[in-house]
Design goal:
- The complex is a heterotrimer.
- By secondary structure, chain A is an alpha+beta fold.
- Chain A folds into two domains: 108 residues, Ubiquitin-like (UB roll) (Roll), CATH 3.10.20.30; 133 residues, Alpha-helical ferredoxin (Fumarate Reductase Iron-sulfur Protein, Chain B, domain 2, Orthogonal Bundle).
- Chain A is built from eight helices and seven strands.
- Chain A has a five-stranded mixed β-sheet.
- Chain C is of the alpha/beta class.
- Chain C contains 17 helices and 22 strands.
- In chain C, strand 2, helix 3 and strand 3 form a beta-alpha-beta unit.
- Classes of the chains: A alpha+beta, B mainly alpha, C alpha/beta.
Chain lengths: 251, 215, 647
Amino acid sequence: MRLHLKVWRQRDADDRGAMASYDVDDASPDMSFLELLDVLNEKLTVEGEEPVAFDHDCREGICGACSMVIDGQPHGPEKATTTCQLHMRHFSDGDTITVEPFRAGAFPVVKDLVVDRGAFDRIIAAGGYISAPTGSAPDAHAVPVPKDQADRAFTAAACIGCGACVAACPNGSASLFLGAKITHLGELPQGQPERNSRVLAMVDEHDAAGFGGCTNTGECAVACPKEIPLDVISQLNRDYLAARKARRRSA
Amino acid sequence: MVLKYVMAASGAAMLLYLVLHMVGNLKIFFGADALDSYSAWLRTLLEPAVPYAGVLWAIRVLLTVALVAHVGSAIVLARRARAARPVRYVHRQPVEGSYAARTMRWGGVIILLFVVYHVLDLTTGTLNPNGVHGEVHANVVADFDPSRWYVTLFYTLAVLTVGFHVRHGMWSGLQTFGRSNALTQRALKTFAFVFAAVLVVGFLSVPFAATFGLV
Amino acid sequence: MSYADFTLGAPVADAAAPDGPIETRWERRRFGVKLVNPANKRKMHVIVVGTGLAGGSASATLAELGYRVSSFCYQDSPRRAHSIAAQGGINAAKNYRNDGDSVHRLFYDTVKGGDFRARESNVHRLAEISRQIIDQCVAQGVPFAREYGGLLDNRSFGGAQVSRTFYARGQTGQQLLLGAYQALERQVDAGGVTMYPRHEMLELIVVDGHARGIVARDLITGETRSHLADAVVLASGGYGNVFFLSTNAKGCNVTASWRAHRKGALFANPCFTQIHPTCIPVSGDHQSKLTLMSESLRNDGRVWVPERKGDDRDPNLIPEAERDYFLERQYPAFGNLVPRDIASRAAKNVCDEGRGVGPGGLGVFLDFAEVIGRLGRPAVEAKYGNLFQMYQRITGEDPYQVPMRIYPAVHYTMGGLWVDYDLQSTIPGLFVVGEANFSDHGANRLGASALMQGLADGYFVLPSTIGDYLATAKHEPVDPDHPAVRAAEDDVAQRIDTLLSIRGTRTVDSFHRELGHLMWEHCGMERTEAGLRKALDRIPELRKEFWETVLVPGTGVELNQSLERAGRVGDFFELAELMCLDALHRNESCGGHFRAESQTPDGEAARDDENFSYAAAWEFTGRGEAPVLHKEDLTFEYVAPTQRSYK
């Protein structure tokens, strides 16, 4: 396959950046999109140009490192697929493909397609955990968890923290990411003691990090490679409201 | 985050008003007297416990507060959204099919302009060709005279915009107050759509009826 | 070739392990360790390299205990460490099923599964701790699969006779890692852990014989600087990427371990690598990594190749009589469920005969037609739906219609830095946990045991044993201008300069691919003396070429992914030689290590306990110089060595 690529190039955080055009003449339909970039980079390197920097690691759709916007869609056009699992057979010979970084104020560009998603770590650090110091745990069967709750917790916990939700959101909001963790931990009995403090602290950190507010456009859930359902945001809002009420009562 | 709840609550208040407004409008189909006396009743409501037009003014004040809160939080949220994406995408394909969701802000501006016109037209009568207080029926009929087709067109567009706005706004508000979950999401979306459709039909029936001489 | 030589050094012994009844050893060791006064813990600083299951859990737990922790990872977030990709599950001797499981049985199975090349003491401790791990993870909110009654579900995994594997759909590693990551972030927020993401350790700092810090490069700015501490913990994972193609993440590398090895830490059993039979085959030269499909597929799928060489008909058109269900034929008792190494080698053999399927003839069919016919498609979908989907996404073929194609791939490395019972390497103050050490799996790791070991090390073993070192060592702070620190920094700077100044003609990846191909051919599923010698001839040549003609674009003071890879590949070259040498010297077949010269008449692995019942711990003496072999003799008091048989 012959493909034309328009790729965002930006030297570092301070550079303005611009799109650059490249051709790849020997793409194979069996390649993943990242392997296409590998081929491009090998070519650029040999030609004495600087290769395109992009984040990637496991290349099997679970680590959440890959992060680009392909033809206007985070992780590209295939549903429920990360960039590393997007194969070129979904494109046609001669296609022009635009590749940009995830764009959000809270995800500043580091270089080319690489962005800094440290804000996600800070949101988790603010409260996205259950305090269970090592050694303090009761037997695993001490507290049964109804299966439907465990299943819902799992569905939300499947979030890979890639940031596609933020990249897709017209408001640059991370509510789907936030809602996924709130739902995961809030569904479990172990998560109850910190349920209120968790949501308040995580939302504060989310807003402080510069993510926008959710207007329920639903684009996040469509872009999510792990198909985190939109109702986790409803859960987030519900929990937040309840937590504020509880705080007022105890104040 | 709090602003979202302000947004949803003020939206809900205005939505309630819209329903009442629409029900009131439909009085036109019961004849000129029905409409005019309904209008008069609104002013004398709860008299003498409250002064003449007291309830009406209370509603107007509440509505203004809701409007200011709604628009105010919309502006803050929109600015925050803009700040959250300082560099735009060169190429961005909106994924979700919901046209309504993406047009909330511009739709809101159009609706706001319409409301200003609407108040000057049918509340103060300033821009109305008949423009006599209390002659609600005559004002409406004059307003939507076939020769003033552009007014009818403008109303139609504005009401459709309101429909879109309500459709997404209602669903969004329910989501904001955490009223939706995996099971009810679909049903709530359908409900919001039907609700918006009823409003649109209800509101449009009046100008069209006037234009086509049915009232 | 002279490098194929080595010298024999003094034996190495595990001085930390208590003797006496095995059931009480860990208990007694824990009682024996010196404790650090809580007030002093705050003054003690530990560096942890890596944030996978072992490193993440260790960092969190050490900080909970009150130590000051600096945690490093090369990824942009600690949550992305490759433990996240583990699919299957985690073993624990909970015996919730009342099916006869016990600590002793898990211990027994693991020693036997490791083909009697692991330490009994370590494995027993692992089996004991396995139970606490599940408790710990559940308390953290790990959403394990549950039954309708609300209790945890278990399954039997990897041919185990009992159901002791806990799982979270096919994403157990992810969920366990997120638990550890969240505990880690909680400590970051509390100030106990300073997190250094996008930092790569490039050198170990050894002062007066003790590990006292690392030199790390900030991958964004390119700045290299030293970080000093009272102890260093390596949790940097395995070295499977020496093969270029493996199921490891692209960034997985041996550099942290190898730098420590060069500074004096012994490297044990490097040739013990695990090949996983059910991976998606290579589709072309562009292939950058291999994807594992869960082993559970072999419970219902039937493995076959065409009877006839070069038969490239549509598989659905090949009649039953012309198919060779080779596992069922060769191993009638276990059939498609034979252990990983046996299934892998059998697949390689039929492909070597020219009967392989798919591109390049490197693949065998894994066919679900029979089970779909028997149970119906919905039942198969319920069981394997997500795996089938993943397969289809990658290959573009529908496994409900066409048999899957699978081929073995490198998956896990049992070898690693030598550690004693306390997980301390031969450099005092350098501890090694998780896949990076060599300790618990012997010559072959059982399914669902990697997660167990990583978390046992990080949550429970290391936090206890490191205290003993810290309480005893009582270090003074290291002067940042200490000659050993300066020397380490200079070494790193010089290495980076060298890589950037060669400006040759070949890319880093092209070297890595060639090295990987060599290793796969000669040090892969089946090893022969001739092949290993060939590799030992070629690797040093290729290494020399690398250092003369590699082309690394860009500079050292920016994000430079080519430079990162170049440094890692440079270390892989040196490791590759040691792996081949270890494989050559171990003239027996055991576990994942199959020497063609050592097999039974019917082609099965033949272990040689008389001559090789030891762990081979290698000492570095210089690049291209003959290393020194230190043997740690293994004794088996509780599980008598037997020859495996799956006929």
